[in-house]
Amino acid sequence: MSVHAGTAGTVRADIRRWLPALLTVALFALPACADRGTEQAAPDSPTRIQLEQLLASVRVIAARPHPGGYERGCKEGQGCVFGPSWTDDHDGPGGHDGCDTRNNVLSKQLTEVSFRPGTHDCVVTAGTLNDPYTGRQLTFRKADARDIQIDHVYPLAAAWDMGAARWPLERRVRFANDIDVNLLATDANANQSKGDSTPSEWLPPAYANHCFYAGKYLTVAVEYDLPVTAADNAALNEIARTCS
Question: Alpha-carbon distance 126 to 141, whole Å?
Fold first, then answer.
């Protein structure tokens, strides 16, 4: 599927209009129930029409390629292909503000946030997360920080395979730290079960939040001109049919 520049630009403008409201309401008011039979749709998730606009704009390829060369680690001798984890040294949202990306995501997404004194509101020590993947309300404490992790909605390994391997390093670092588009705090088990899976392989445990997740995934794909596979396209179209 090819996209004309004018069409893609219009869709990006539409995304920027509805995404802030989607994030603000859906992240802070997600349902706490996990039973599909009793779930209610996440408030202000994208509509079927909005998802169809995104689906019409994203590139679709037959299958995920495997160019090789992906190495996330940044120790001596490692590829460090997306830069150091949670670096503040990037030109995207939150970059060069003195806070690392992980804490930026936590401070943006948690409610009732507490910060470590003397860190200029950089180091988050406590807060409440309305988890966009499990639909549960989780308590964050710095002492148990591993219980809540930061997910790349469009996984880094998948992005590398789908085209990021050809990007300049600066663009890859921005992608890996984009707190507005590609990062979500979530339950550690959900994040680990997802790994580098794409929508045809993994969806959030909370069925009611599938429309929200589909909107986020497609937003990243359109914003960064990354494709989806035919299998992902089919899965996302199926989700779109369930949205209001």
Answer: 5
- The pLDDT score that the predictor gives to residue 2 is 42
Using CA atoms, how far apart are residues 5 and 206, in angstroms rounded to an integer? 35
CA–CA gap between residue 143 and residue 197 (Å, rounded) = 29
- Quickly tell me which residue has 């520049």 as its tokens: 5
CA distance 223 to 1: 16
Q: Residue length, the chain?
A: 244
DSSP state of 144: G
Identify the band that residue 228 occupies on the pLDDT scale cut at 50, 70 and 90: very high
Which of left, alpha, beta for 121 (phi over 0: left; psi -120 to 50: alpha)? Answer: left
Q: Is the distance from CB of 64 to CB of 154 less than 8 angstroms?
A: no
- Which residues, at least 6 apart from 55, have a Cβ–Cβ distance to it below 8 Å? 218, 233, 236, 237, 240
Residue 83, helix vs strand vs coil: coil
CA atoms of 92 and 140, how far apart (whole Å): 26
**Whole-number Cα distances in Å, 57 to 15, 20, 198, 230:** 11, 20, 18, 14
Asked if 155 contacts 195 with a C-beta cutoff of 8 angstroms, the reply is yes
Please report, for the chain, how many H helices and E strands are present, in that order. 8, 7
The predicted structure's pLDDT at residue 27: 46
Question: Which has the closest alpha carbon to 182: 88, 92, 112, 99?
Answer: 92
Amino acid, res. 118 = G
Domain ranges of the chain: 5-240
